[in-house]
Specification:
By secondary structure, the protein is mainly beta. Helices cover 10% and strands 43% of the residues.
Length: 312
């Protein structure tokens, strides 16, 4: 039986209300992130269907590891989000596994990737630094000489970016992003445009830790994708590395789907249809998220929709 999950909404100072376009009933007009599939303590998704209805994903992970191929990790390893940047996010960086384990109570580090769902004309992201010297980068950070330091990239819908841990980055205003990442919420803010909380206090920066974990390499920017046609459907492998494999499916009609791993995470980006799993029929629509588990052996997708599938 698949695990359909209830999303978790997070208000952000830079958030908006575009996520309502995915059919979500937003609790406010400043929702920056919807955590579509998450077992993280800062946003545990609830299971919507039997036999685990009402339990959270981390509970099912801890008590029924057989559904995930008895995967050995203590924590559920992946998380998916949609990010609505009404204004620019802070410029920040995430640690790798080793640093996070030692300095953040044993948490995962955070490598992530972005599929650009939509972007206003001339919208930008920040990806990496305009220097190949960490010494120069640290000097500019210490003197707050940011204008020429951050590498700004104009983005368009359909582009894909892999952001390994240690890479300085930010999503700019007017960009809507589907994000898959390691299950981590550790962020070190480097620069935040002097924004303040409702209380009037400036948002906290974490520059000392950010400077420790910054890596300079920018070679992964807008990585090429690999597309093939399977049963008249377009399969695009966006990335595959030690952290995750991400595949986008453009389905029109019927697809007999074979899981590549014991469990996979599925998000419906657009369209509607059905998924038939071992004879049981489930309706699918934009904004839904679910997990195909080890128990789900025979899967058929029917309809016209776009999916993002993530797995280890």
């Amino acid at each position: 039986m698949p695990l359909f999950v209830k999303p978790v909404f997070h208000e952000k100072i830079w958030g908006g209300n575009r996520l309502k376009d995915f059919g979500y009933d937003l609790p406010s007009d400043t929702i920056g992130e919807v955590w579509g599939i998450s077992a993280h303590p800062n946003g545990r998704c609830e299971i919507l269907n039997e036999p685990f209805q009402g339990q959270t994903l981390d509970q099912v992970w801890n008590n029924h590891r057989e559904l995930f191929g008895d995967f050995p990790s203590q924590e559920f390893p992946l998380m998916t989000k949609i990010v609505d940047a009404k204004s620019s996010l802070s410029v920040h960086v995430h640690p790798d596994d080793a640093y996070a384990y030692e300095n953040e109570d044993g948490q995962y580090g955070k490598s992530e990737c972005w599929y650009i769902i939509d972007a206003e004309e001339d919208a930008e992201i920040i990806y990496g630094l305009n220097t190949d010297s960490k010494e120069v980068a640290l000097d500019k950070i210490n003197t707050q000489d940011y204008d020429a330091l951050f590498n700004k990239v104009k983005v368009k819908p359909g582009e894909f970016y892999f952001i390994p841990a240690g890479t300085i980055h930010s999503i700019g205003a007017g960009v809507l992003v589907y994000e898959t990442m390691q299950s981590s919420d550790v962020t070190y803010r480097l620069f935040d445009y002097d924004r303040v909380h409702a209380s009037g206090e400036k948002r906290e920066l974490s520059q000392s830790k950010a400077k420790e974990v910054i890596e300079i390499a920018n070679e992964n920017i807008n990585i090429p994708t690999d597309t093939e046609i399977i049963e008249n459907h377009k399969r695009t492998q966006l990335v595959s590395n030690d952290f995750f494999t991400i595949v986008k499916w453009d389905i029109s009609g019927t697809l007999n789907y074979m899981k590549p791993r014991e469990f996979v995470l599925v998000s419906v980006l657009k369209g509607e249809g059905q998924v038939i799993i071992d004879g049981a029929v489930f309706d699918l629509k934009q904004g839904q998220n679910f997990i195909l588990t080890s128990d789900d052996l025979d899967t058929i997708f029917e309809g016209d929709y776009e999916l993002i599938v993530s797995y280890l």
